[in-house]
Amino acid sequence: MVSSGREKNLVIIQLTGANDALNTVVPYNNGLYYDFRPNVNMAAEDLLPLNDELGLTPHAPEVKSLWDRGKVALINGIGYANPNRSHFRSMDIWHTAEPDKIATEGWLGRAVKDMDPQGENVLTAVNFGRGLPRSLASRGVPVASVGNLETYGLFPDVDDDQQKKYTLEAFARMYGPDRSRDPVLESLGQTGRDALRGADILRTAPERYSSSIEYAQSGIAQSLKNAAQVMFADLGTRIYYTSVGSFDTHGGELPVHAKLWDDVSAAIGDFYADLEEHGYQDDTLIFVWSEFGRRIKDNGSGTDHGAGSIAMVIGGEVNGGMYGRFPSLEEAEQQEGDLRANNDFRSTYSTILERWIGLDAPSIVNGQFEQFEFISK
Question: 208: how many CB neighbours lie within 10 A of its CB?
């Protein structure tokens, strides 16, 4: 990799609800696909061809453009052994990199600890959305969650400046250091102080941002715009997390899935154009994942929870192409009606952690896993 002198950025896009891998990358020359999906299928002539066998959904033209430039790695058949079709359990497995037991820390939270062991930067990781993703949850790791960067801050609904000043001062005193506190209250206090510092720093990002890119108005596009604003402000943030959904398409899948990918693809296209305009494309990796795929057979108007899925890795330093085997549709090779995963998701995590961020992966992903070549060593 050619070094620009900058730290490497990792942008995570979670497709919540289980994206239909089989209608995202479609085996259009395989008659079994149309046999198993007489109602919920993508016509071969509508697809964006990737090769002689597979085509991309026509609702991802921006991703296809980046694929044509060699900037997209498609990870086929990604998943884990003994798949769990519960959204909550499967997401927890992906978030914690622990399929065999309930873990307490997220894989990205552990990565942040390794990147910033003293917790010196409260903005090493930022979530663009509500709540805290399990991936980023780890004791002692501060993570800012931003709904809208333009209005982000503590007590944004307090309009009067003087009243806001008094409110913030009271908040600061409430969370100020106090040696008489027990460890739990002190931990909460530290969280509050980190929130104050993070809010104060993040609110400077939009005013420092200038771009010719006009982002789409979708939620995911605006989240990625916010990520770009923080990234270009050089605040020391390394991990940018956001999610979009719901991809839980049990019914009415074709129009719903189409709209979701229209939004996701356009947002990625806008974001990548912004990276290029500011010279960050070679310092940024975008990882797109979903907790599992959908069943091979449709249910009449949609698809139900499955197993093997697809992930995408996008960036200027990505070795584009297909990774992992596209799962067989032959009934003898299915996994109880699902696409069979043929590579553990922690192989992709390990590749990103070691080859991109420069961390030791086994302690973060709970084991040693074969790495892919979508990032050169």
Answer: 12
pLDDT at 257 over 50: yes
Q: For residues 55 and 57, give the distance between their C-alpha atoms in angstroms, rounded to a whole number.
A: 7
**Same domain (yes/no): 254, 137:** yes
Are residues 54 and 193 part of one domain? Answer: no
Q: Which domain holds residue 165?
A: 153-202
Question: Under 8 Å CB-to-CB from 285, ≥6 apart: which residues?
Answer: 8, 9, 10, 11, 313, 314, 315, 317, 318, 352, 356, 375
Is residue 56 located within the same domain as residue 171?
Answer: no
Cα–Cα distance for residue pair 368/58, rounded to 1 Å: 37
Residues 228, 167, single domain; the answer is no
Interval 261-277: pLDDT, tens: 999 999 999 999 999 99
272 and 143 in a common domain: yes
Q: What are phi and psi of 142, to 5 degrees?
A: -80, 135
pTM of the model: 0.90
What is the distance of C-alpha 86 from the center of its chain?
19
Q: Which residues are 294's β-sheet partners?
A: 305
